[in-house]
Amino acid sequence: MKRFLGPLVIGISGTLVLASLGLWQMQRLEWKRAILAEMDARLTGEPEPFAAVVDPYTRFATVRVSGRTTGEELHVLQSTGQGAGYRLISAFETGEGRILLDEGLIGSEAKGEVRPSRDLSVVGNLHTPDDWTSSTPEPDLARNIWYGRDLDRMAEALRTEPVYVVVRRLEAGEAVAEPLPLDTSGIANNHLGYAIQWFGLALVWAGMTGYWLWRKRRGTPEEDQ
């Protein structure tokens, strides 16, 4: 039996380690689901008055905000199913200060249109965009084309506070863009797949261990048994 002890210990230990990694991924799955459920609840919750939000950097909080666009805007290149378009980011004067308002998508043909200032009342979500990376090209300021959203730089360009609201729906005023409301569909949750991989490896390890022991058993002379 001593000749089987080493392989048996290795086999059981490896199987337990791999299975424990699968269980850990299942725990991560539930953790991620809870986070996404909380985000969904915040994104679609009852809107609060913008002035009532204590921290304007609270991500995903649903707010109701009224004010007036100034006609100053930034255009962020946005890929769509119909081709390229632009996110329309407007300077927005509110009773609580001047902020950035993400009005949504405009087509390439609408980029050069002159949009006068408008009174708006919107329901939207506070956001801190993070799609600007070290590999993002610098904005083409002459053509007013941005390739990613850098909150501080956009606020500086439009002379606003670094507060960014993404329109979910327009309650009053003239819409000039198709809203692109925030949701959690683009947030990956791959933990179930990882768990299946680890459990699969645990089964393979256990099967290989059994096969190894079976081969050793077959190769054992009768007199040694």
Descriptive labels:
225 residues, 28% strand, OB fold (Dihydrolipoamide Acetyltransferase, E2P), 2 domains, single chain, 6 strands, elongated
How would you characterize this protein structure?
By secondary structure, the protein is α/β, with parallel strands linked by helices. It has two domains: 2-38 and 188-224; 61-172, OB fold (Dihydrolipoamide Acetyltransferase, E2P) (Beta Barrel). The protein contains three helices and six strands. The termini are close together.
How is this structure best summarized?
The chain has 225 residues and is of the alpha/beta class. Helix content is 35%, strand content 28%.
Structural class computed from helices and strand pairing: alpha/beta
Order of strands across the widest beta sheet? 2-3-4-6-5
Count the strands?
A: 6
**Residue-averaged pLDDT:** 87
Enter the CATH topology name of the largest domain. Answer: OB fold (Dihydrolipoamide Acetyltransferase, E2P)
- β-strand percent reads 25-35%
Radius of gyration: 28 Å
Layout of strands and helices, then pairs:
Blueprint: H1 2-43, E1 48-49, E2 62-80, E3 83-94, E4 97-107, E5 119-127, H2 151-158, E6 164-172, H3 191-218
Parallel strand pairs: 1-2, 4-6
Antiparallel strand pairs: 2-3, 2-5, 3-4, 5-6
Helix pairs in contact: 1-3
